[in-house]
Amino acid sequence: MSRQCCIRPAVRSGLLCPRIGVRGFPGKFYSKIGRALPKGLRKSINFAAMEPKESPILQGLNPAQLAAVVNYDSPSLIIAGAGSGKTRVLTARIAYMIEQGVAPFNILALTFTNKAAQQMRERIAQMIPDNRSRYIRMGTFHSVFSRILRENAEKIGFPESFTIYEPSDCKNLIKTIVRELNLADEKYKPNLIASRISYAKNCLVTPGAYLANSVYAAEDRQAQIPEFGNVYNIYCQRCKRNGAMDFDDLLLQTNILLRDAPDVLARYQELFKYILVDEYQDTNYAQYVIIRRLSQLHSRVCVVGDDAQSIYSFRGAKIENILSFQKDFPAARVFKLEQNYRSTRTIVDAANSVIVRNSKRMEKHCFSAGDVGEPIRILKAYTDREEAEMVVSDLRDKVRSAGDDWSEAVILYRTNNQSAVLEDNLRRRGIPYRIYKGSSFYDHKEVKDMLAYIRLVINPRDDEAFKRIVNYPTRGIGDTTVQRIAQLAAERGVSMWEAVDALVAEPAADPVQKTIARKVADFVAMIRSLSLARNEKGLYDFGLEIATRSGILAAYRAENTPEATSALDNIEELLNSMQEFKERVDAEIRGGERPEEEEATIEIKGRCLMTGLPKTITVNSTEMMEAFEEPVERILEAVHNVLERTPPELVADISNNGIVMTGGGSLVDGFDKLITARTGIHTVVAEDAISCVAEGTGKSLDSLGDMQDGTVNLSRRRQMN
Question: Under a CB-based contact definition with an 8 Å cutoff, are residues 529 and 519 in contact?
Answer without folding.
Answer: no
